[in-house]
Amino acid sequence: MKTALTDDPNEAAALVRRGKLVAFPTETVFGLGADALNAEAVRGIFATKERPADNPLIVHLARVNQIESVAARLPPAARRLAKRFMPGPLTLILPRRAEVPDATTAGLSTVGVRVPRHPTASTFLDACNVPVAAPSANVSGRPSPTTWQAVQRDLDGRIAAILHGEPVEVGLESTVVDATGERSVVLRAGAVSLEALREVAPDVQLADDADDNEAPRSPGTKHRHYAPRAEVRLVDHPGDAATGPGAAFIGLDAPANKAAFGRVAVCDDVGGYAQRLFRFFRACDAEGLRVVFCQRVPPAGLGRALMDRIRRAAAG
Ligand code: AMP
Ligand code: MG
């Protein structure tokens, strides 16, 4: 299959309506989209990404008022969260409607719903005129793609098209909040921080802190994730990193001996660090580097999401 590269959201949407797979940019990372109501197209996503079949897909919509086309209901907390943070980098887990096939939700009775705020994504989703199931547009286990070139590297020849547009803004995947229970639970940290969520839903808790084992979990969080081929190690300061041509460093403080590393990224702030992390991992892999030292940041706000991704990459 030849993968088309296009900047025309209508051309990309026409492919989705014909049951094809299309990668598209969002404010978080690039998604690999298919018609969420077409089980065969959705199965194509799992095959193409080599994604475990028990890991459900997030359904993307153009507008907040379309949520009830895929969700059976919007509990009060979910309604408040949607009003405040959508469109944006937030995914809400809601009771699903029967129209959404098992292939999309991995057989769960819930559905993950997101309304991106990225202009190209919005135009594309609007033109699709169907809900679009989309995980990150990478081969499973690899760092999520934050550029169309990264999508091309992983999926060229395996999908119908790559839509490009404005660059991604956040660089980390969406915050996932389960809003089906009495208390909402953060299943995955993201750019919509715990602190921000608590402004509208004060009792929101982190899945890691939910003390009863009945607390819902995202099936995806148990799989190996976000990892480059290089080994990832956490350090408090650049001076704690071992140097050498096979070593890389990314963080907020500049190493005294930059030239002693194979690659270095010094980021202005936590937002810049988040935006660069996955691109940095991929660049290190392309150069065959062996160890990536990542500087720790305080685990608050966006820093919580950044530390979550770095820790998972290190565990891989
Ligand atoms: P990805 O799109 O690859 O960034 O992954 C989507 C994340 O959302 C994974 O961690 C999924 O397990 C999670 N997710 C999607 N739908 C649901 C759902 N219905 N219930 C719980 N988690 C979900
Ligand atoms: Mg993913």
What does this structure look like?
This protein is of the alpha/beta class. The protein folds into two domains: 4-206, DHBP synthase (Alpha-Beta Complex); 231-315, no CATH class. Helix content is 28%, strand content 20%. The chain has nine helices and 15 strands. The protein has helices at residues 9-17, 39-49, 76-85, 102-105, 119-128, 148-155, 194-200, 270-286, 302-315, and strands at 4-6, 22-24, 31-35, 58-60, 90-95, 110-114, 132-133, 161-163, 175-178, 185-188, 205-206, 231-235, 244-251, 261-266, 291-295. It has an eleven-stranded mixed β-sheet with strand order 1-8-2-3-7-4-6-5-9-10-11, sandwiched between helices. It has a four-stranded parallel β-sheet with strand order 12-15-13-14, with helices on one face. Strand 10, helix 7 and strand 11 (205-206) form a beta-alpha-beta unit. Helix 1 (9-17) runs parallel beside helix 5 (119-128) and helix 8 runs parallel beside helix 9 (302-315). The chain is globular and about 55 Å long. It starts with a strand and ends with a helix. The structure holds adenosine monophosphate and magnesium ion. Residues 55-56, 58, 93, 105, 108, 110-112, 135-136, 173, 176, 187-188, 218-221 line the site of adenosine monophosphate.
Give keywords.
DHBP synthase; binds adenosine monophosphate; 9 helices; 11-stranded mixed sheet; 4-stranded parallel sheet; binds magnesium ion
